[in-house]
Write a structure and sequence with these properties.
eight-stranded mixed beta sheet; Dihydrodipicolinate Reductase, domain 2; about 200 residues
Length: about 200
């Protein structure tokens, strides 16, 4: 799943480990653009796994999984395209302690393609494209905003290659950065969201 290389981006890894967030209370993430309807296009063709959720929604869902884990409940609203695939979806995920994720994806309109992570001690604003950020701004009460920038030559793909090479060299069959259980959890949420919308 392509979205999973997001976890290997050094900036995403950094915010996932930063204890200054305290308790993460909310994750907001959106990915969308206008894709004119064409029944032969892969995004609109149910036989090709079309729809906003499977192609675009996986990125917001993957970020929420990384930072908040598996939700207790999910509320979904959205609409279907003429071919029966999901054209757009707004999803709210509920977690223990009243934490939440608010996720949005669309093939009908452009979205911000940014993300916000709100903790009890710090907030992160992740620039577009949030799944491959080059800049994140951290804000804390009583402190100047802190900008994090991706080093030249770095990205999620390079980090993923390093992780795979290390795993092969060490004889590991699973990454601690991207465990199989998290991939399956994301896919289950996506499939459930599609089911609730009645997508093909």
């Amino acid at each position: 799943m392509e979205a999973m290389w997001m976890r290997f981006n050094p900036l995403i890894q950094r915010i996932a480990r930063d204890e200054r967030f305290g308790e993460i209370r909310e994750v907001r993430a959106a990915f969308g653009f206008h894709q004119p309807y064409d029944p032969a296009h892969r995004l609109w063709d149910p036989a090709l796994g079309g729809g906003a959720l499977l192609d675009l929604g996986v990125y917001p869902f993957a970020l929420a999984q990384l930072l908040l884990g598996t939700p207790l409940d999910m509320q979904v609203t959205g609409s279907l395209g003429p071919s029966g695939v999901d054209a757009e979806a707004s999803v709210q995920l509920a977690y223990p302690g009243d934490a939440r994720a608010m996720l949005e994806t669309s093939l009908l309109k452009p979205l911000s393609n940014t993300a916000t992570v709100i903790g009890s001690g710090m907030t992160a604003e992740i620039d577009a494209s949030f799944w491959a950020p080059r800049r994140i701004v951290l804000t804390r009460p009583g402190a100047e905003p802190e900008e994090l920038h991706l080093e030249a030559g770095e990205d999620g793909y390079r980090g993923e290659v390093r992780e795979v090479a290390g795993a092969v060299a060490e004889g590991r069959t699973e990454s601690s950065i991207m465990p199989l259980d998290d991939t399956l959890a994301v896919m289950r949420r996506l499939e459930e969201a599609r089911r609730r919308l009645g997508a093909r």
